[in-house]
Design a protein that fits this description.
alpha/beta; 209 residues; single chain
């Protein structure tokens, strides 16, 4: 074993090593925090280049007022949470701010079931079939399949948000954004959190123009 080569390698690659260690620790700590969080009745996540942290909670408030959300965790309260992740314009900033890791943790945690995401993120996670089949919603609201994102079997997993009147009214950026729902096992179709997410998306799509 050449100790000198190892030292040289560590010296020239310490930034990469530090970044990897940081990413692993970040994911582990965040995942632990997510696993300890109280279950919400509906979680909404926005991932895009626009800053919507102030306006996204207004969407949750609009949905809450409709009384379409059930008390999934049976705590006697209806709880809606929102999460906004801003995608930097440069890849360097994305890596520096651990944005891919943040998105991954949020999707894995399962706290957010209703998504408003930009196309690149959707395509990236569609490989793992992270999103539910919402073909029925696209058909219900006469949304052209050509404008949606689909799996190889033709099932639609993302619906364009660009013309949605409710989001525009709330000044939430919609350009290049899509709606999606987190995927679930067939046995969990009637789980209240999944039903809440689908009901919320139905309500939003009713305000498409």
């Amino acid at each position: 074993m050449d100790i000198k080569k190892i030292k040289n390698s560590l010296y020239y690659n310490w930034i990469k090593i530090a970044a990897i260690v940081f990413a692993v620790v970040f994911i582990a700590v965040t995942f632990m925090q997510c696993s300890q969080r109280k279950e919400t009745d509906l979680g909404i996540m926005y991932v895009g280049k626009a800053v919507v942290s102030e306006n996204l909670p207004k969407l949750a408030q609009e949905i809450e007022k409709t009384n379409i959300i059930s008390d999934a965790d049976e705590d006697g309260e209806i709880t809606l949470n929102t999460k906004a992740i801003v995608i930097p314009l440069s890849k360097e900033k994305m890596i520096e701010q651990q944005v891919p890791e943040q998105i991954q943790v949020e999707i894995i945690s399962g706290e957010n079931l209703l998504y408003i995401l930009e196309k690149e993120t959707l395509i990236s996670y569609a490989v793992d079939e992270s999103f539910a089949d919402i073909t029925d919603l696209a058909e219900k609201f006469n949304i052209s399949k050509e404008n949606c994102l689909s799996y190889e079997d033709g099932s639609i997993y993302a619906i364009p948000a660009g013309e949605n009147a409710l989001l525009k009214e709330l000044e939430i950026e919609t350009s290049g954004m899509y709606f999606a729902l987190r995927n679930y096992l067939p046995k969990d179709k009637d789980k209240l959190t999944n039903v809440n997410a689908k009901n919320a998306l139905k309500y939003i799509l009713e305000r498409k123009n």
